[in-house]
Amino acid sequence: MNRDPVEDVLDQVAAECRVLARHLAEWGVDALRSGDDVGAQDRGASRKEVTADGPA
Known about the structure:
two-stranded antiparallel sheet
């Protein structure tokens, strides 16, 4: 049985949505509203340190 490539993409999107929902539940919406870059530690950078032109 061949899967439609669209189904594969939808499965990936659904998985990302589940991850996002878990993160929102853990961090709380208040952290996102405050502008904190809650994932910065995971990436080793913060939004304030990196701009569209490169490191600030």
